[in-house]
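Researcher: Re-running this chain for the archive, since the previous output was lost when a drive failed. Same request as before.
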Amino acid sequence: MKTGQKTEEKVFSYIEEHGILQAGDRIVAGISGGADSVCLLLLLQEYRKRVPLELSVVHVNHGIRPDAGEDAAYVETLCQREGIPFYLRTGNVKKLAEEEKCSEEDAGRRIRYRAFEEIAVKTDSNKIAVAHNSNDRAETMLFHLFRGSGLKGLRGILPVRNHIIRPVLCLDRQEIEEYLREREVQWCTDSTNAGDDYARNRIRHHILPYAEQEIVPGTVEHMGRTADLLAETEEYLEEQTESALEKCIVDREKTASSEEFPENGFNRVELDVEKFLTFHPVIEKRMLLMLSEKLSPTGKDIEAVHIRDMLTLFTREGNRKISLPMNLTAYRQYGKVVLEKGNQVLPGEAVLPEMEFSEFFMKNRQEVPRNQYTKWFDYDKMKESPVIRFRQTGDFLTIADGEGRMFHKSLKDYMITEKIPKEMRDRIPVLAEGSHVLWLVGYRISEYYKIDRNTKHVLQVKLKRDCTDEETEEKNGRTH
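Model: Regenerated structure tokens:
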């Protein structure tokens, strides 16, 4: 059997094993003109001889390379030769990156997928085919590993995700190029892939080749098998998490199931504390992450520090409240923990601001931010996760006396000294560890938690509001 036949059989088996395509599917294929996408187009054409499919092609010009028009012309010629409907879309990566405050790499991805979705609607297609291969999957796994991802990230790219399909994910780059050479088909080369401007390119050009040549031959193939195992594990844990949530959610008519409530417009979910604590910590964390992602508008920005803070609501009693990214709120209410959209007001409370928490390890010469809305704290000095709330009896700050000594001062006395109006004192948010106030928002932070030369682990807290970084507390005569 020729190499080309083996490649086709390998891909067709992969398609059938993962249920990637079914008879009657209408597919939009994203074809750049590179080897991967040209191979995808040819293999889809071959598969159409076995299974009836409708196929359209979209090519996206990102507006980066002067010679990009040649790629579009090449893909259009291929489509004309095969009798496939061709659509050309253009974008401006640099402009979009500026407008949406993202990297150019991310902007390019957004432009592509928006074009794919547009043509899918136009052609009444139910699937979008993209040309990721096994090398891409390995690169993604490493990229996510370096960023500290969980199982979802470590499984890399999936063969099917909603209506996005990747039929050639089982092939590596060498197999793809050999297939095209045997069929005597040319492909285009994107000059932007040759540089090391993007993190993925550096992984592609340096890390994976070194691993293949110097550590373990067949690295990409082995990582692909690991990715499949991780995907199965993630799928199992997803099912276990859904099942656990069904047992923990209180008042089913009010909040619905974890799977249904976001689509049905539910903004709030209540969890039974006693039932929640019967599960393994892995499932507990996953339940909180799943609910947070379903409640938030984008499903992003919830990090490990937020999950740890929410877990404290289950283990320590008290009417405490935590502000989370994307305008989410979590709080303890007797035997329940409530997660909901928006900073809901508890009885007798003013509205707490939304805060964003993140953590990192201090590097040499990092400058502590001095703007009014972002603060750094020495995380190693904290025994508990701090919470955002309003003042309580017994709250205190650590103050410096100007002679190198520190002392505790009650928050009430500090407010009197600062001449804060009495009617405002219960409405100013505080970030506190127990009764020790880290930050009286808008005024000062505790001397005890300040960053110093011995600080290794930093907690960054950002107050999310309309402001500019240039606006500093020094303008108001306040310390950072």
